[in-house]
Amino acid sequence: LSHIYLFYGEEDFLIDEEILSIQNKAIKLYADQLTIERLDGKSISGKEISGIISQPSLFNPNRLIIVIDYDFEECDLLLPCLKNMPPGLFLVFTSKKIDSRKKIIKYLKDAAQVAEFKPFAPWEEYKLISWISSRVGKYGKSINSEAAAFLSEIYGASLRQVSIEIDKVVTYLGEGTMIRKENIIDTAVAGQINAF
Fold first, then answer.
1. Does residue 193 surpass a pLDDT of 60?
2. What are residue 184's phi and psi, to 5 degrees?
3. Close Cβ partners of 97 (under 8 Å, ≥ 6 residues apart)
């Protein structure tokens, strides 16, 4: 578990999954010795974040602070706090985009675990189909190529929507192991399929 993370990009579904993974690791490591705080980055300043970081928790020695959609605009006071974070503090920032010229971003690229999450481009359908197959595999199921391509056609590169549909089809399939196009048609909402 790193102490600072920066996740940015337009693919918020993958960012949410990464945050959930970090939360689960932190909970596993610290169990009831952990406080998790979620902050709305759109309505909080760097000064306020600095205050939260600097203030020790009254309840638990370990804290995970998640700042969602922070734009790094008012962050002059934040950089010194990041350089001197107290032990037991884990910090996750998410942002739609970053300006790599800013001092704080340069610092984070050196000191934090940084990852960009971009949606699949229209010409990357093969990557989306591969992602769909991998996602289905997490449930111990398989999907044939026709069905994966069909999901891709219906929902495009919206990984959140594709994931919801995979969850529905897996539940519908029950003990079955292979997802076929017919299974997707059976579980899809009528308006989504009419165009196909």
1. no
2. -70, -40
3. 8, 9
- Residue 74: exposure state from Cβ atoms within 10 A (0-12, 13-18, ≥19): middle
C-alpha–C-alpha distance, residues 109 and 177, integer Å = 42
Nearest to 18 by CA among 40, 39, 2, 34: 2
**pLDDT grade, residue 189 (50/70/90)?**
low
Give the pLDDT confidence of 90-113 residue by residue, as tens digits: 999 999 999 999 999 999 999 999
Backbone angles phi, psi at 143, to 5 degrees: -135, 135
Residues 6+ apart with CB under 8 A from 89: 3, 53, 62, 63, 65
Distance CA 149, CA 159 (A): 14
Residue identified by tokens 């790599």 is: 100
User: Cα-atom radius of gyration of the chain, to the nearest Å?
Assistant: 20
Tokens matching residue 73: 């605009």
Q: Cα separations (Å) of 141 from 14, 132, 171?
A: 21, 11, 11
